[in-house]
TrEMBL record, chain A:
Substrate binds at residues 122-123, 138. Gene3D superfamilies: Molybdopterin biosynthesis MoaE subunit. It catalyses: 2 [molybdopterin-synthase sulfur-carrier protein]-C-terminal-Gly-aminoethanethioate + cyclic pyranopterin phosphate + H2O = molybdopterin + 2 [molybdopterin-synthase sulfur-carrier protein]-C-terminal Gly-Gly + 2 H(+). It comes from Tribonema minus. Pathway: Cofactor biosynthesis; molybdopterin biosynthesis. This is Molybdopterin synthase catalytic subunit. Residues 1-22 are annotated as: Disordered.
From TrEMBL, chain B:
It holds the Pfam family ThiS. Keywords: Molybdenum cofactor biosynthesis, Nucleotide-binding. GO terms for cellular component: molybdopterin adenylyltransferase complex. One of its GO terms (molecular function) is nucleotide binding. Pathway: Cofactor biosynthesis; molybdopterin biosynthesis. This is Molybdopterin synthase sulfur carrier subunit. GO terms for biological process: Mo-molybdopterin cofactor biosynthetic process. Coiled coil: none annotated. The lineage of its organism: Eukaryota, Sar, Stramenopiles, Ochrophyta, PX clade. PANTHER family: MOLYBDOPTERIN SYNTHASE SULFUR CARRIER SUBUNIT.
């Protein structure tokens, strides 16, 4: 038996993909984002699935014509929060690699402001992890954008997912049901964190048990 | 002691600056004292200064938590985020 028993490429990549995620890529940059580079960053011989998400600037909001978005970020803290998201995703799913890049500065219509790529052996893990990453990013990563409309009016936007940064240490005050009515946090919820499962949104016909939790994409629990 | 205070997005526009150095004297060594000092230095921050989320050295503080500060700390005012 040769030294370093795991001498096949598979074994090597397996041993390097630890919970401390040495191969995850997080990036906050003023350069345009490239999907192909993000896919390349997570590709590998063991990966049967690569799932990606792109957040892209669209041209209208509530009937107003959007000209551009101006992103601003607290870069070192944003990257630190992105690393936390990678670590949390690895605790929840068996993942090969994660890459998350967020653009700063001006993005024109149709340009990507965020790209997330996750690879896994099978598809389910990477699909679910990508959704978790974008939902959590919107709740915790200190980045902002100014929406600039035709005619030069402008608005600093706010994510519905934001709950003041103290996400997990705060009780979720209310839950919003799928039909938009507000209900008190259930006794079962208590002071625990409630995790959003976005696919619940599509089950609106399936009864009172289905909630869409507007706040508290909690990542520590 | 001196702390660095950073402003972003709507807070940056209210403050009219990205960053200031704030000197805190004696017992004024907490985030509550810093909020008070910021309103004195930059009265335009009055509407947001008392309730806004703060990050100390790249970590969020809990809402309502009064954190002790030390010389050289970096404190950021974090208005509601909109990344993504």
């Amino acid at each position: 038996m040769p030294e370093g028993a795991g001498n096949s490429p598979q074994d090597q990549s397996s041993s390097s993909a630890t919970a401390t995620s040495p191969h995850d890529l997080v990036m906050v940059t003023d350069q345009p984002l490239e999907l192909s580079a993000m896919v390349a960053a997570v590709a590998g011989p063991k990966c049967g699935a690569i799932s990606t998400f792109l957040g892209v600037t669209r041209d209208t909001h509530n009937g107003k014509t959007v000209v551009r978005l101006e992103y601003e970020g607290y870069a070192p803290m944003a990257e630190k929060e992105l690393r936390k998201i990678c670590e949390q995703a690895r605790q929840k799913w068996s993942i090969e690699k994660i890459a998350i890049a967020h653009r700063l500065g001006v993005t024109a219509v149709e340009e990507a402001s965020v790209i997330i790529a996750v690879s896994s052996v099978h598809r389910r893990e990477s699909l679910e992890a990508v959704q978790y990453c974008i939902d959590t990013l919107k709740a915790t990563v200190p980045i902002w954008y100014l929406e600039v409309y035709e005619g030069d009016s402008r608005v600093w936007k706010e994510n519905a997912e934001w709950s003041g940064g103290g996400c997990c240490r705060q009780m979720v005050p209310t839950n919003t049901t799928v039909d938009g009515t507000s209900v008190a946090a259930s006794a079962a919820g208590g002071a625990q964190c409630i995790e959003t499962v976005a696919h619940e949104l599509h089950d609106s016909g399936s009864g009172a048990g289905q909630h869409h939790h507007h706040h508290g994409h909690c990542h520590d629990c | 002691m001196k702390v660095k205070v950073l402003f972003f997005a709507s807070c940056r526009e209210l403050a009219g600056t990205k960053e200031i150095a704030v000197t805190l004297e004696g017992a004024e060594n907490s985030t509550e004292a810093l909020r008070k000092k910021l309103v004195e230095l930059l009265p335009a921050l009055e509407p947001v200064a008392w309730g806004i989320t703060l990050a100390v050295n790249h970590e969020y503080t809990d809402p309502g938590q009064n954190v002790q500060l030390k010389d050289g700390d970096e404190v950021a005012l974090i208005p509601p985020i909109s990344g993504g």
